[in-house]
DNA sequence: TGATTGATGTTATGTTATTACGTCTCAGCC
DNA sequence: GGCTGAGACGTAATAACATAACATCAATCA
């Protein structure tokens, strides 16, 4: 299985890390946010891997790179990036992944392949959202939604046969 | 979708625990499953509380009742109940809650009030499911879905004013 | 200058979950 | 009866995930 899928397709990975970091940098400057070295490096790590990483995986990499070696170092950077939409947490995996569609405000849905561990981020249509409908009928006001599905990705389905 | 999710309304709780346990008992006998004392007691505990409980909360109660005191005791019972649809795990809370609509196969959606901690289980319409649509367009085969929303429940919205 | 804020680091601890292994029971079979 | 395999339950030990509390430093600003 491809160790490098975005969504479930192959792609040229060589430039997208730098581009995404650059975009985040610009976005932070505009918003008055500090994309500090640890934070930037954390984002790079997630982009390079292009898959969901646990906080301790990230921490190990940061530590190798000369940053602090204690859990709060990773958790704080991940919190910042998550809070500002550059990274998402996959609740089902207790893991983090770089946003595949940064910039726009969105409610992502994740498709998690239990065979190859790939994670794809799909966009949802807010107006037709299942949860929005439920919220409307029940009078519940949603602030954040978690949409995750486990299953088998197209690649793994194909190779099963 | 269920227009009347259990969770945000008061209701007479006195009989529903016994009824639900009875139903589970019957269902297990029919399916050739063993609803053993620990498993039954675990289900009772979750039904009595009628809210999401952590595995260690459940464990403490089981231990008080003379069952084992080590984590696997709770996790194994919860795994059994979850696997067979009597209990759901709320990923966002790392907690477990008794199913509000047992018996039918379903993909529940949870509404989690961050103000009062109430959790409501709403039914979803599989055919119109957001994730089902995504799966169709991407070729991903879903085996399990996690649908959870955090926000404010109708009761808390009302008392905010 | 002194106060405030926000970022980073550390130590220590808390919370959630699993692995590994021994025992018991019961059903199926000789 | 005695053997065997499967499944349930118990324990000890450990792994994996996450936060609290506190010290330091730099930038900002009255
Ligand atoms: Zn995203
Ligand atoms: Zn796959
Ligand atoms: Zn349910
Ligand atoms: Zn509430």
UniProtKB/TrEMBL annotation, chains A, B:
Keywords: DNA-binding, Metal-binding, Repressor, Transcription, Transcription regulation, Zinc. GO terms for molecular function: DNA-binding transcription factor activity; transcription cis-regulatory region binding; zinc ion binding. The keyword DNA-binding applies. Binds 1 zinc ion per subunit. GO terms for cellular component: cytosol. GO terms for biological process: negative regulation of DNA-templated transcription; regulation of secondary metabolite biosynthetic process. Zn(2+) binds at residues 113, 116, 153, 156. Its cofactor is Zn(2+). It comes from the Bacteria. It holds the Pfam family FUR. Belongs to the Fur family. This is Fur family zinc uptake transcriptional regulator. It comes from Celeribacter persicus.
